[in-house]
Design a protein that fits this description.
OB fold (Dihydrolipoamide Acetyltransferase, E2P); single chain; mainly beta; 12% helix; 8 strands; two-stranded antiparallel ribbon
């Protein structure tokens, strides 16, 4: 089984690119803390790649410093660098991403997040529908 869950923060704004055949893709780095010793923490910098609608979603709603939950798998690639040395690349392919609840007063917030969270102190993304990104209260549901 090859599966990974990460919770971290984007190290930089993601940029949406397209392959030669027009498939959307983005790659970025996520800073993830881990325990070290005596209550200290260290940060691991993990390379992530996302494809298609996941890539578009990330680029639209996440920016530098944004917390993110990533569910994906680890992939490795072998290649030869410009000097002819054999190299290996390890990255996480993001299959699903989610927002992390947070206080909108702190940290970096994208303009789209700011629009979605206007007037509230805490943003709970589980309340957002992927189709319309509208917050729905229990009272609005007819059943």
């Amino acid at each position: 089984m090859n599966g990974v869950y990460l919770i971290g923060r984007l190290a930089a704004d993601p940029e949406l690119r397209q392959t030669g055949s027009g498939v959307p893709v983005t790659s970025f780095t996520v800073a993830v803390d881990r325990p070290y010793s005596k209550g200290e923490r260290q940060t691991d910098w993990i390379d992530i790649v996302a494809w298609r609608s996941t890539a578009e979603f990330i680029c639209k709603y996440f920016g530098k410093g944004s917390p993110i939950v990533i569910k994906g798998r680890i992939e490795t690639r072998n290649f030869e660098d410009k000097q002819g040395s054999k190299r290996k690349s390890v990255e996480v392919v993001a299959e699903e991403v989610e927002f992390v609840p947070r206080n909108t007063a702190g940290g970096s917030v994208t303009p789209q997040e700011r629009d979605l969270t206007a007037g509230s102190e805490t943003y709970y993304p589980a309340e957002i529908s992927p189709e319309g990104f509208a917050v729905v209260d229990d009272e609005d549901v007819p059943f």
